[in-house]
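Practice set, problem 2.
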Amino acid sequence: MAFAGTFRASLIRSWNYNLGTEMTFVEMGLSEPILRAVTAEGYVNPTPIQAAAIPAAMAGRDLLGCAQTGTGKTAAFSLPVLHRLVENPPLAPASNKNGRGAFKRIRCLILSPTRELAIQIGDSLRAYGCHTGLRHTVVVGGVGQHPQVHALQRGVDILVATPGRLEDLRQQGYIDLRAVEIFVLDEADRMLDMGFMPSIRQIVKLLPENKQTLFFSATMPAEIAELAEGILHNPERIRIAPVKQTTELVSHSVYHVLKQQKARLLATLLTNQPITRAIVFCRTKHGADRLSLQLEKVGIASLALHGDKSQSARQRALAHFKSNHPPVLVATDVAARGIDVDAVSHVFNFDLPNESETYVHRIGRTGRAGATGLAISFCDDSERGYLKAIERLIRLPIPVVPVGKMEEFQASQFSLPQGSGDDRRNDRRPAQGGDRRDQGPPRGGNGGQSSGYRDNRGSRDGDNRGQQSRSYSAPASAGRPTGPRPNGPANPGQRDDGRPAQDAQPAANDRPRKRPRYSSSGGR
């Protein structure tokens, strides 16, 4: 839409923070309890997004912030939210009585796209607000709702939530949003990618008109710009454009390798390189699970992390990964913006992402806090287009490491199943007794005889082919494919299914079945 494009253009023309300006948290005017907690955390100078966003948000302005993941956006909205709630206490303790009981009204709502990011925000609020007396809780899916409901009934000032669980508890009557003073939408573009836009629009309709809105997004597609235009009122627009898409602390490399060799190459690199912590990114959930199992089979401890895991399993995997037991985490892109772990030395792109920006978010897990990191990608023939798009985005060619010259890879003894975890099995398994693809015409061919892929399921295809096949099927206990065998076994001393015969004369069940005779009039 035209106004969305105009809004994005105005964002690009907006004020950019001067990276050379030095400022401290003390100079920002944060309330004493918050400043004490920030100092205890060891923070002295804010990041560019924090230096630009915190003063505007503390003044009560609506805010539109566009900055990459890993730039400190969580503190950029957490600190001013805590400051405003401390400095502006409610006039009277508000409670809401309904069929579910009485509980304290929510003053701030923070929406996050993923469970991991919501929990990370909750941890930051706990650290920064430990001296304020403000209460907060996190409500996410994948776990039981009873502890979350109990926390809501005790009363909270700040609610951190994912859209799905928020709507669920609100419809049950446990959440009242009519007293929200500050609304924070974090990672809005990720919300769009995950299909949360309808839920976001519904939630916004339930919030009061007179509220402060803090809107953060790593990118600004048209639909996100349209949403921001609708919910923000005269916002302070802040765009922190990085000088480069990637930091110089991260070294990039790519291996051109066949898909069926990727797992063996990964196992070789994990064994032969000095790795502190490594995150391996796969494209699909099934792929992450399968690759983790493959690594376990060759003695490399790893855990899989993706959206199909329960919340307790995901938290347990992250806790183990942070403690280096195991040091390898196999994850999908749903975790690319939710993992905040220090000392990640390697990021492996087992499957190249089909969106170039996702590559930047993935490798942002390493090279943090002044440490160096390695971003290693595997590229098969079908992913060369993705690689070119990534190189255009980061504006540098990724050095190619020839696999053929890797002595460790050529000499590796790892025996791994071929293919990556996201392969789909498009072949049909033969019936019991081996592969009989060359025996008889395919199902539905002339004569209606079934092939070796027949599994005696009957006429499930909705026609009479199953009936025809059953007319000539051997007993299921014979362990052979169905269909006539007019010539009998090729070797008299061997059964037709490959097992040796007990004697030279085949058993009764092994004798070929005779075709029924038909009279010239068509009857039997």
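Problem 2, part (b): a different protein.
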Amino acid sequence: MLALLKPWRCCGDLIEHNVDWPTAFEKFLSTTTAKERQVLGGIDYYYDLKTACERNDGSDNVSGVAEQNSQRSTGCVNTFDETGEELEETSIVLTEADLQTFKHEQTSPRERAHALAAIAIGTSCGLFPIVSHEATIRTQCLRSATALDLNQLASWQTTMQHMIAQTTSKHHGTLTTSTTEHESGEVSQLQLADSGEANLLAVFAPDTSVLTPEKAEDLLEDQRRAYNIVDWHLQKMLSGLNPPQLRMIIPGEGGVGKSKTIQTITDNFVSRGAGSMLVKSAYTGIAASVIDGKTLHVIGMIPINGGKQSAVTMKVLEEYWIDKHYLIIDEISMVSREFFAKLSNIIGRARANRAMHTDDPFGGLNVILVGDFHQFPPVANKASAPLYWPSKPDKDSEMEILGRKLYEQFNTVVKLKTQVRVTDPDWVDLLQHVRHGSCKEHHLSTLRSLILTDQRCPATDFSTSPWKDAVLITPRHAVRMQWNLATAKSRAACYQISLLSCPTFNTIQGQPLSLQEKFCVAAKRNNNHGHNRQQWDGLPDEIELAIGVEVMVTFNISTDLDIANGARGHIVDIVLDPRENGNVIPGECTELLYPPAYVLVQMNRTKASTLNGLQPASAI
């Protein structure tokens, strides 16, 4: 503080000879101006809040912390004019507007600049059209929930739970315990108490984009080669000949038909009456749903928090894997060496009583790895995490070394090479060079010509297909938040529909947070740096909702029903909390006091059936 506020050129200007630093600081305090005292008070207050938030675990201590600091937040401070002269003592009271300013300032100026630039570019290209307010107002029936609505909601939730349980049992056996948490697909019961909890129900359109298998004879040459190896092994297994463990890899770039090959292999298992012998899985929920599988966390009953399986869990796993003989893991690039070894150990333990060779990977289970190591690497992991990374005994953990050794035992490889998704030869050439990081100048020129601000970029009508349904991919959180907000506002203005701003509704022991406690929570959110995503359910402090706005699932509710992280849909109805008493104005943004009672979302793809009370054209 002395170095910050006291003029100095050398250390002697800050502290006199034979005087310690605390004494020098106390002497400085006795001579400070009003402006310096206010700066010191602000810094002191900031670090008090920061320390309290770091120590607080989200429990009832927040209230105590807020009480200790409330005097500063609402107390008296000295004010000054431009000359630094003290004027008079006054009281500064923090308001909700101050809280919003505090939250806004948590985003760095650089991030805000990127967000504003992105919105400006999007607006100039017609992505956020400005619509005249003379447009016809659409009739909307946004209403508060009645007792009948709440009863209907409870009925829907019960039906969804039953549907999820039935689908899980039908496709994968009874593989559910409390250890799977978010992956288990549980739908929480309605809580209309003072918490103001919102419930999200998905309304489903007919499933029109599910991958369908090819006839074996219609497969491409490399696809057929992979198919024949698995088919030969399956026939030997069904004949009781106990073939050697199949440890197989099917690599290939995007668009070569890996998923189609998986579905054709699946169809072959079913046609031979061996569908129950095959388990399909992937690391993420959306990847698992594409192949009609489950996540790796679910099939291994691996807790999200990284804990160990209990004896009850292992018993369930033993029963589940007792009649399973094949495992397909898609998107293998996202599996780390450590996780690979952990999964192998868990399945090996579950199959310990039946494995002929206990030293074999995965307890002798036949495993087929599918994917492209040029695509997504293991999430939130170090650069050396992927399976292809050579082991370094002096740096790697025991599990990482084991994972690499297991991967090296996969000795049957069929690489898919024929590109079927991209047919333009120039683009195939460009994508191949991008894939290997070997782009030449003409490749870079082609890519740069597609930048929206580049003069060579062709004129594009973003209100037409397929651009109107395109997804913005950005590594910047601020850009994503501002883009979503601009899109919602534009759509609300275009169709004159109601845009609702839904704030979080945090409580302590059922009671709403005070303003000081809200400041503490906001500071804690910023200090977490994204590490406790599940604590906030992956949502921001406020989210804008409107009928027709596109949304994305951020947790694996049920991969069996294709309600998985990354699945998309759009809002078809919003029913407000019964306590909501404000007017909702079409075409304008209305800030709600409480989260909605429920939101109905029509998903783009699902396997769920219709719920009572919804339109016949949709299913839930």
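Answer key, part (b): DSSP finds 19 helices and 18 strands in the chain. Residues 112 and 343 are 42 Å apart (CA to CA).
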